[in-house]
């Protein structure tokens, strides 16, 4: 499909949606544990972190119990770019990455000498699943004139095929720079983030047809209805959301940028269109402000993932303890793939806007 006016091409691929559905069907229900068990798990994890010279690096979308424990024990709660930077610079020999699989892979690629453990290896991402490396490589081969820019939410093998990796916090700057160099871009996998980047930079993007199942379900109509009840609320939107939602935002940004915006904006109420896990750190940043979850209901919403990433939700204190006790779920990346992926990751890490 080609949008002539906006110079965007999206390559539609229905088999990838089926792939994502198949993965979603395997996500188990989240277990609820009582406070005594929570305290017991926290104590055991703290002891093991010291014993094994390990540190927890957690994404904003994980369980607040994990985020709190990471902070309490000298670890980090961050977006994927900052997670990578922290793991790269920290002295701990073992990194426990609570998030989804590509985050563990990124940590291993950047710090191959460290042991990188994850609470579960089953936590993936619809963007990663929807962009299989072999199909992506074939797509790139068809467009050798384009610079390949991939989002961090991809497998190591897809990163290895790319010229650049970007996160949502740095995508605009990198694409703007490449556009200024006269480069045409092949972008993957998130078509909504790609459309936002294209609109902001005017760059020539050929896009893979991928999406995040969480952000895709936010609805502009629902947000506008909520605004009627809270007319003074600011609307904060992650750019993985559909264009109609991005268009009504007061601020569009990555998770870290949205937390900072909540701090800076004068409004006392915020309607937040991203995974609810972010509320833990956002509320810490603005304890006196009211945070409202952006609605996901309406036509097309399945409510399989209403502002809650099912894969992020697979991380728990129980499986975090288990991976530390057993040294299990260690991330390994093929050395050749790792070297190539590291090159495109380091371009992002070293990029100065
Ligand atoms: S929230 Fe979306 S982009 Fe993030 S891990 Fe889940 S499916 Fe992937």
Break the fold down into its secondary structure elements and pairings:
Elements: E1 2-3, E2 8-11, H1 14-24, H2 35-51, E3 54-59, H3 64-72, E4 76-78, H4 80-89, E5 94-98, H5 101-110, E6 115-117, H6 126-129, H7 133-141, E7 147-151, H8 156-161, E8 164-166, H9 171-180, E9 185-188, H10 191-201, E10 205-208, H11 220-229, E11 234-237, H12 243-246, E12 251-252, H13 255-264, E13 269-273, H14 279-285, E14 290-293, H15 317-326, H16 335-350
Parallel strand pairs: 2-10, 3-4, 3-5, 5-6, 7-8, 7-9, 9-10, 11-12, 11-13, 13-14
Antiparallel strand pairs: 1-2
Bound molecules: iron/sulfur cluster (SF4).
The site of iron/sulfur cluster (SF4) has 14 residues, from helix 6.
Description of the structure:
The two termini are 32 Å apart. Helix 12 (243-246) links the parallel strand 11 (234-237) and strand 12 (251-252). With 353 residues, this protein is an alpha/beta fold. 44% of the residues lie in helices and 15% in strands. Strands 1-2-10-9-7-8 form a six-stranded mixed beta sheet. The chain has a four-stranded parallel beta sheet with strand order 4-3-5-6, sandwiched between helices. The longest helix is centred in the first third of the chain and has 17 residues, at 35-51. The chain has 16 helices and 14 strands. It is globular. The chain folds into three domains: 8-24 and 127-213, NadA-like (Rossmann fold); 35-124 and 311-336, NadA-like (Rossmann fold, 3-Layer(aba) Sandwich); 215-302, 3-Layer(aba) Sandwich (Rossmann fold). Mean pLDDT is 91; it is low at 1-7. Iron/sulfur cluster is lined by residues 61, 100, 125-127, 153, 212-214, 240, 275, 309, 311-312.
